[in-house]
């Protein structure tokens, strides 16, 4: 946001509502993050079977199909299994072609999660963030937890703590697999807030998150995007669990007032590249 855009606001009175500009997109964040956590939990437990030791074993399942069909198919893996195996061999071969030639031959939708990440990265145990440092913006700010507000949205930082950032505590901590989400105000009625300059970040800039275990997770900016609050691409912002990542979110665009506040969200996409001891 620029100061000129602030002067163009048709409804400056709405600005006095604490967090009004961030709450318009917070419901999407909460809904998406909750859904993704359930999916991640199901994926993590999908291969774990638990049984009651006292329970009697289930009777063997009867093979599907008629005796004639079973006789023709025999006891081998069957056509579906062979087809899947052939497809996997083809995918592995195509990935090999990509690594040798550098040419992408797999569709993006098919290869999601299959290609190696652009850089090696650590994976950190869970630890809550307590500080945020961005040297290129001369930004050093405390980070506190924010959860779910009574209306079902993310509880954005109180206007009295506008110089602090808020980590959404229903998602991953910075350094775990998945996108850790940190939100902050762009400004208040009294002036710039913690994420006032967020849109000035560029690809390659580094973001450091200090955690309660005294480690520092170092993220590298991939891109800075601006989305209309009514058209936020939920899967793009919150759906990547292929590596540890970070999303910094604030408001941007023009001031429209009311419950929406600013028309857009500014979203910083960043990936974990290293970690170090904070001393």
TrEMBL record:
InterPro entries documented for this protein: Sortase, Sortase_dom-sf, Sortase_F
Pfam families xrefs: Sortase (PF04203)
Listed Gene3D superfamilies: Sortase
CDD domains per record: Sortase_F
Alphabetically ordered keywords of this record: Hydrolase, Membrane, Transmembrane, Transmembrane helix
NCBIfam families in alphabetical order: class_F_sortase
Protein name stated in the entry: Class F sortase
Region Disordered, residue ranges: 1-24, 38-67
Record bears the keyword Transmembrane: yes
């Amino acid at each position: 946001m620029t100061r000129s855009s602030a002067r163009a606001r048709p409804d400056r009175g709405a600005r006095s509502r604490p967090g009004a500009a961030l709450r318009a997109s917070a419901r999407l964040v909460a809904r998406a993050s909750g859904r993704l956590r359930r999916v991640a939990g199901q994926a993590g437990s999908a291969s774990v079977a638990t049984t009651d030791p006292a329970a009697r074993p289930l009777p063997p399942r009867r093979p599907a199909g008629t005796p004639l069909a079973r006789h023709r198919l025999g006891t081998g893996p069957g056509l579906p299994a062979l087809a899947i195996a052939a497809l996997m061999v083809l995918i592995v071969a195509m990935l090999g072609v990509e690594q040798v030639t550098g040419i992408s031959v797999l569709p993006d939708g098919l290869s999601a999660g299959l290609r190696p990440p652009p850089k090696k990265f650590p994976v950190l145990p869970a630890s809550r963030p307590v500080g945020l440092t961005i040297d290129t913006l001369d930004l050093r700010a405390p980070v506190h937890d924010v959860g779910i507000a009574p209306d079902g949205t993310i509880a954005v930082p109180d206007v009295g703590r506008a110089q602090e950032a808020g980590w959404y505590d229903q998602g991953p901590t910075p350094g775990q697999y998945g996108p850790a989400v940190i939100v902050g105000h762009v400004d208040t009625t009294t002036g710039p807030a913690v994420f006032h300059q967020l849109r000035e970040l560029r690809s390659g800039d580094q973001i450091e998150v200090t955690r309660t275990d005294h480690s520092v997770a170092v993220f590298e900016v991939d891109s800075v995007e601006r989305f209309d609050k009514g058209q936020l691409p939920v899967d793009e912002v919150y759906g990547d669990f292929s590596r540890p990542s970070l999303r910094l979110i604030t408001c941007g665009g023009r001031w429209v007032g009311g419950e929406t506040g600013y028309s857009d969200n500014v979203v910083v996409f960043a990936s974990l590249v290293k970690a170090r001891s904070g001393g």
